[in-house]
Design brief:
15 helices, seven-stranded mixed sheet, 390 residues, Aspartate Aminotransferase, domain 1, 14% strand, four-stranded antiparallel sheet, 38% helix, Aspartate Aminotransferase, domain 2, alpha/beta, globular
Amino acid sequence: MESANSRHPARLGHPGPSVTPPSAPPIFQTTAFDVPDLTVLHQLYDGTVPGDIYTRDSNPNHTALAASIATMEHAEAGAVFASGMGAIGSIFLALTSAGDHVLVADALYGKTMQLASRMQRLGVEISSFPVSAPETISSHVRERTRFILVETVSNPLVEVADLPAIIHHAGKIPVVVDSTFTTPELIRPVELGAAIVFHSASKYLNGHGDVMLGAAAGSRALMKQLTETASVFGQNANPFESWLTQRGLRTLPLRMQQVCQTTRRLAETLSRHKNIQAVHYPLLDGHRSVNTARKLYPNGTGGILSVELRGDGFEVVNRFMQAASGIPFSPTLADARTTLSHPATTSHRFLSTDARAALGIRDTLVRISVGLEPLDQLAAELEDALNELG
């Protein structure tokens, strides 16, 4: 007999069984999952039956996205995190202990550099090697080197790492690759021999500027380590943003194709403007990574380029951004719309002027993240803004 309590609002709202599944993946926006009894609970923990218990540990949206990214990266397994920094943070926490050593490329995203500095406070030694000289890696490796960290294309000077050479010279040391700028549409580091590839999925994988998420792919054993670490440290992803990123993956091939084509032609156009001192784009003649870029990325290196303006530091950048009113100044990248950013005051502002200069990040440097707008429109808007500089 049905009790009055079974009709209480707290018990309502669960859909019944259906012979017509949804054509789009559903969102499992739940904290926990109901377990029928202790027998099934033990089976869930042992992994002998499929299912989830608590969303911090796993959720169908996490699982589906991780599997999709693993498939695209041609890896055994995947994992998802609260952000790209959550991904690299989990990698450091899972793979290192006090007294260990990590070798990093000298060209890295600013927040990754900050994370490496924080890890030193926990007893992990950090040293760097020139990404343009992978043959020097063996001289930097130590007995307790746990992994080597590199970006496929560096932020913001878009220097291309010669991944095959780096992996070769690393020998038995695992190589961890940040492929945020390039995605599995342009390169698959695990196929080349990398141990882990990771992404800020907030960027191209999602592609619409409305998600904060990270992702990684590699062996099942490594992904299990990362997932367990993310759960312990609260770096887990959430269901809705996993779902949004899964939706973004559906258009990734088309988006990457367009931004690569537009960025290449835009770089060529901007390189001829009198008010630009230098254009940093790997497939341009004269770029220090051009030979590696042409070898690894014949179809493009993604949608990022940087320009150095002629003029006086912050003042000329401010005037340029104000004149380019149709293109927002937004300290992110890989949105569907084109955005501008100023590395010296955003991603690398924690460094001194001299430290930034040593990395080649000058006050006149502007990073352009090319979106899905037509080339003619972007070229006209940027040239008009440059002309305003006099």
